[in-house]
Amino acid sequence: MPESSYSALADRLLTIAYDITATSGPAALSLREVQRRAGVSAATAYWHYKGRADLLLAVSRRATAKLADTLNDAITQPLPSRTSDLAAVCLAYMHFARDHEGLFQAIVMNSSTEELTHPAESARGKAGLAAFEVLQRAVADYTPEAGTGSPIGNAALHVWAACHGLAVLLIDSPMAGWPESDKEQLRLQHVQFVLNSLSRH
To answer: Which of 12, 14, 86, 95 has its CA at a distance of 20 to 30 angstroms from the CA of residue 143?
Structure first.
């Protein structure tokens, strides 16, 4: 098979897997279903992806790139109500979890220190930045003394944990049943709490 055809088929399989995950969540993803929708043999599908875990990792990296673009857009696109780049990034992160729950779950399932500190190229957004790097820069701009070195011990890690924690609670806890207006009010209050905590850093 020519290299271009090989790459095109691998991308087609990944796109199908990505769409399944985006629509129904990572639990619905199977290599067999991707193979069926693509109209290829099981052997062909396994030639490109060793198994479900390999495919889900590729999906999560593409989803992480989308998250990176979402966070970067929150900074680069003018928003009248934005108080700071960091506030915009924090809110965009929680909105991503709300709007793309399946992809967000895929990212969470494949989180690791290696993926965080050495993201694959496929996990980087159009600007060449990984999602955590966008957050690091926003934190450094807001609190220069926080630095942008290793995420361990960096203020960006604590900001990420705070926003991630609320994002998860709002989609996977009794709070998931709250009206969206109440959820949004809580997100806005949470962002202000995070910023106030950094200001006292």
So the answer is: 95
